[in-house]
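Hi R.,

Here's the input for the fe (ii) ion complex you asked about:
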Amino acid sequence: MKNYQQWVISTHAAHGPAAYFRGMPTTTPPLLTSVQLARFVAHGHLRLDAVVPAELNREALDLLPAGLPDVPHGTPLADAYPPGSLPRRLVELPAVAGALRSLVGPSPTVDHHAVHVREPHEGHAQPLHGDAIIDVRPDAFDVQLMYYPQEVTADMGGTLLVPGSHLRRTNESDTGRYQNLRGQTRLVCPAGTVLLLHHGIWHGGRRNDSARRRYMFKIRFNPTVPQVRLWDTADLADPAVTTELGRYFPWYEQATGRLEVHNRVRLWRALTGDDSFDVEHWVTRVTNRPSQRSRS
Ligand SMILES: [Fe+2]
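And here is the predicted structure with fe (ii) ion in place:
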């Protein structure tokens, strides 16, 4: 495998100086709607089925077995991947670029990336986990892109997700003793599918019972701008926004499930800059501090 600098230089040489540009495309990709954002805030993930063309999937399956050079932590996305490279073409796909821009803004940095492999007849699954230490930021989140270049069938150990778990702050693999939760989803998808995850979502690679290796390429993005109204807000007043944010998931306990909705409202307030938004008056009630108001 080449190191990072060799990779950048060789890809640059292959595509010529004229192809090298430091910025990302200047046209605005299709942004997510407010209802889609609310759904992301409730579920903790967004799924884009078969958005990557077959040609790029084939190239990925040629390339990923050898791995990709590490990108230094914090590299601006516009600088992280040479033009023509697989990751660059992946993040420039309009559907992917639009979703990323809606979630982390126009100029995120690459935290890290990795190629994940589930071996054939592997015999064990990855424990349920979050990808980092406990993270209680109330007004920012990272996004993890997961790209599946091949069809993932039911026996290939597709990534397990627990929808609605991302705001229940846990520390790395402390959830690993949970084997199954009601409402969990195990990914079965066509080739070229991309998941975008809130960094806090509980997830894990399942056991691969098939005879094929399963590949997934992951990139974690850190925002560099306030994550406020980065999407297409034309439908912000759509009642479906509140419906999405008030959703319950089957694994929630009755009482704690209410706290999940509360935490979503707080995140939605941060994302919209609208401190009056609420579901059932819950956040308004517990943030009412008359003694803190100005007496002037
Ligand atoms: Fe993970």
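One thing worth noting: The first strand starts at residue 45 and ends at 48.

Cheers,
M.
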